[in-house]
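Aggregate trends can hide what the representation actually does to any particular protein. In the encoding step, the backbone of a single protein was reduced to a row of integers, each denoting a local shape. The record that follows shows the chain in one-letter code together with its fold in token form.

***
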Amino acid sequence: MLASSAPRSSARMTRSLLAADARVGPRDEAEGMSNVILEARGLDKFYGRTAALAAASLAITEGESLAIMGASGSGKTTLLHCLAGIITPDTGQVILRTRGTETDVAALDERERSRLRREAFGFVFQQGLLIPELTALENVAIALMLGGMPRAAAEGHAAGWLAALGLAGFEDRRIGQLSGGQAQRVAIARAQVTGASVVFADEPTGALDSHTSSEVMDALLHSTTGQGRTLVVVTHDADVAARCSRIVHMRDGRIQPSEVAA
């Protein structure tokens, strides 16, 4: 299991998260390519005769925030799922570069991909996919406990992340007792607590009003790119995409030319 990134004190964590600038500016192309953490190479994915992905290639650099946009059925969620090892492409490679090693995620079996998702990746979904029977603290701590960390230590790390994301005092509340924005911040804490190198967010603000959406994106960016981690967001929301350092559009399973967000 990757070492948890939770700090020794929630106060230090809060300062370190909120002091960082969450926006990542444009990179020199050569510099960016030398620091690629995740790369899709010629991905094809078919469902029957329908091509969900067609020769999709994409390089994602360490520390950037990338927004993937497109109409329903464009292939954006399929691409995210392939990048994250949730599904495998029919052809092509997904190369993860961490700690000086390269791993073809697409070539791993389900057990190996499950371990990789648990240790290297974090996930934030539209509905959070939190466990309603557990408290906010337990929902975050369980990510560490699944990797073998003792409960007391896991809950200590989880409490640090909740405090850093403005949820000190909410540790014992169940998910149904939280607002939509608070629940998404619990999901962000869960995604971050294992020290994930890459966080994938699938419509993380889709069920939220515009004000809460902005607050959730603040928290998501500060806790990922603000800490040198990588964020990949699938969204329909142009305002959410504009918060990211780069935007790619998808159409009919193909990646269109990318742009740097304003």
User: Anything to note?
Assistant: Residues 10-260 form a domain with the Rossmann fold fold (CATH 3.40.50.300). Residues 26 and 260 are 7 Å apart (CA to CA).
